[in-house]
User: Fold PhoX family protein from Saccharothrix lopnurensis.
Amino acid sequence: MSSSTDRGRRLLPLLPNHPLGRSAVTCKFRCGDACAHEAPNTSDNTYFGDVVGEVVRRRGLLKAGAVLAVAGAGAGLVGTGTAAAAPRVDRDRDIDVDLGGGRRKDGLNFTAVAPNTEDRVVVPDGYEQSVVIRWGDPVLPGAPKFDFDRQTAAAQAGQFGYNNDFCGLVPLGWGDRWLMVSNHEYTTEEFMFKGWRADATTREQVEIAWAAHGMSVVLVERDRRSGRLVAKVDRRYNRRVTVKSEFRLTGPAAGSDLLKTSADPTGTRVLGTLNNCAGGVTPWGTILSGEENFNQYFANAGSVTDPVAKQRLSRYGLSGGASQRRWEEFDERFDVAREPNEVNRFGWVVEIDPLDPGSTPVKHTALGRFKHEGANVIIARDGRVVAYMGDDERFDYMYKFVSDERYKPGSSKHAREHNRKLLDRGTLYVAKFRGDSPAAEFDGSGGLPSDGEFDGTGEWIPLASGNRSFVPGFTAEEVYVFTRLAADAVGPTKMDRPEDVEPNPRNRRVYAALTNNTDRGKAGKEGATEPNPRVGNRHGHVLELEERRGDNTATAFSWKLLLVCGDPNSADTYFGGYDKSQVSPISCPDNVAFDSRGNLWISTDGNALGSNDGLFAIPVEGRYRGRVKQFLTVPRGAETCGPVVEDDFVLVSVQHPGEVDGASADTPLSHWPDGGATQPRPAVVAAWKKDKGRICG
Assistant:
């Protein structure tokens, strides 16, 4: 056992955790105990039904078109299915990677951090880290200093919100200055208020929670002498967006009868954004944010008797009576029985322009409505914009959107106004994956098929474009508002919680974090498939998708699994063909990002290996492809979110620190980041090299 202190920091007791490494309180407040309920997708989308007859024909096509070949170290181990030696990460600090066009460094020249359960952020030797901003720190001028025991809604509305997830930087164009935009996914009332009880919630507590949700826009500056990033209270740019902020609904479903309420008979204006998870920075300098587990905020869906309405609510995970937070007692729009359409106004991709603090953020109906983890865009070779998205639910789908119009380069007012409308007109697709190996080779153990890798082809099935629906029995408005049901009807592939889905700007391939799915293979549930090869999938995997001919607007693609995560000692893990004795263990991939070299960085959520969540870097090219190295870990009970990877610093969002079973505001078991007897506070953390050199280069 470790001693009770380490470098002056107290270690946390190893308390029993909820399945998948999360505490019960995190599951309760973050997603409404989603995994404790039946998965909402009850459709019969048989994965291999249309595959077996095509295996032989497609195998030849796949082999001819494969361009993602695994090379180098450990290739001889790919098909063995045997356990590797205990994980050991090479201590070399300067690694050359052969990318086919000569040799150059991949930039991952740090010593891997070992798995741990410490109550601090652990970074590699030779690196430093510090908090940029934490829950309750002032954002707007005049906001008071944070006082945990005397917090008010008015104070919180001007302070940094709770449980920050996605983090994005928009450069201001001069010096080391950026606008940092953070999502505030959810509130954990048991850690915000001493003695909190759902049945005794006060209006002030509810309004504090409303103000702690949403987004923060904060000016940050780099101190070149120390390397630190410092948050500034800026009168011009800083901004808070909350549950009370106004949003515009745009795109083809705006104004639909399905979106009209008594407070908004136009169906075009919404108050607030909820459960904002991941997101992305657009080429035109705005932020996209995904509304994820919005269903948990709405009450009394169980009282709905109309069979059509009931089916729609059920498919989005709504059922039962009172909500966990009891918001419906203070605002009737959260009561489905009284405002049946209000819930339809959440579950969208949100766009906010941090460079225009007076602008009204929008919700893009053309991108569909589901539990958006986020949305990330790339400019296709013909100039159109392509957005990739995942629906973070067991057995749900991956999507993409292709704009009708083309991106206008530049930062002029005309160009920015044009580009901010690109996501309102285009075609929405859902993904169907096909494997190139016989179904009999997938018994759920996670073992590699006989051809030595998990791979195949797929297609993007169109759902709607503008006012035209491609789904029989659904109008275009119904496709956008009830996207899950429309997708069910066209037979896409059920995936293991597709969370962050992002295109790599260096190679144009798309990387998807499939976080986990412990329901796969259970009685009455879909079993193993080539893109989801394990039953009871606790550790998740990472999928790599390449559009036909490298064209992101294409409707056909090939795919591979880059990682099948877990303990490298286990036979059911795969690291891109790389030697498993040379990798860091990784579990439950969540968010992805890329450095300037095109290396993939992954943050984790719910590590099921018994250690803290962390941030990992993986080359995706050359002989070190699949070599996972852990860059940092976050405090116990916390999740690693929103990675930003610059050449000379990294940002991570440390979400729900100290949320371990047995803890609460009355009995905190963590005092990160401020130490002493303080309460734990979610925060954004920066890490950089002590010599202020380049991390990626």
